[in-house]
Amino acid sequence: MSRSVLVPGALLIPALLGQCKKNEAEQAAEQVAQVGAICDGMNDLSLAYVAGVMEIEVDSLDAPGKRDELKKACKTMPVEVARCAERLALDDAACDKALESFLGMTDTNPQGEGPKPSWVLEPPFEVFDVEVGADGRVAIAGEQGVGVVDGGGLSWSATLDDGSARVSWWKDQVLTGSKGTLRAFDASGKEAWSKALGDEGTWLSAIEPGPGGTIVVVTDGGTIVRIDGDACAAGSEGCATTVATVEALGGRSVEVLPSGALLASGDSGVALVSATGELLAERAADYDAGFPRGGRVVVGNDVLSADPECAKGSDACLTVLLTVKDLELVAPLAIDGGLVYADTYGVIVSTGTHAWKIDAGNDSDLLTDGGTIYSVGHELGLDAMDAPPQVRAIDVMTGKTRWITTLGSERASLLTSPLAVLQGGQLIVSTRKQLFSLPVGG
After folding, report:
1. Which one, of 18, 116, 48, 41, lies nearest residue 427 by Cα?
2. Averaged over 321-332, what is the pLDDT?
């Protein structure tokens, strides 16, 4: 006669747990073996993929021990990531997800639908500079013209010969330059006044608002001119005062700081110049300096912060805030007690109180309204040649994507970055041939 045997739970549970642990250990050992086999069999292209993921600097795979170093690093990857590296997975959703998890990145999927542009305009000339006025009107300038967009329509435009492709607002007038002359246009597009600042071959490389309602102009020769707009409008001969000529400013992008000092950057370096025209500091560059913004500028792997109150020649003039390999040449944002920067792989990183990183997937300019970071740029990857620019809205606190909006349907120019200006609840983006207004915030 057979009979059933009741095994007490107290005896059964440890046996089951032991079996589970054994199974987990076997699975882990199996995965380690799989990863080892994948990594040991990798070709050079896959090893280069590993180097990128693990941020290992490689000058040559033929360097002694370099392949072994990369294979060892590969063996620390989860099997899913190792498989992606083995087959050089690009633009693969499953691999993107696995990499995000392995690298500790936030989810890139948008939490909601992004806003549609409130208007789109094709300007009558290629746009190289954009400035939004206090009333929301948008001034645009290029080498062939200047104009104003109001509510999505072209309010007026004027043709220029050899335009400086720089534009700024002064009161309700638009300022630009051509053939060495500063020109002011009124609300109807009529030239209200002008002031010659050089011969016809002179290029006005910067036209910026200065302290006390003045206008600061820098020529391609590095000459700083302070303009009294009211006096020029009244026809006064003495309305333009030459401050100094600083060779280090010549032909560079210039930001006028609140104190009136100038931070300039170009292919060969960065310079900080006082409001009186004294060269305070320089930093050499090798075609790896970004545009200055907010008193910060990227040079190589360094983020520099300018202090115009520094003693001439001191290290305090251009302080290194952060050193990171493969920095995108975009001035980082100072927010949340730290910096938010982008790298050349399309990753955006926050070093603030709420640290995070996200694979934004585009070479981005960065703007913020305090609660949201707007990443504006070209999409990276295999489809980049056909992809229009996009805007990604990222939560400052969490690093999660709130929404993504694609701008238009035209292929983005990979040789130039879109221009972006954020003001008054509208994000203006120019791709040279198209202008978009995107309602944001609120």
Report:
1. 116
2. 92
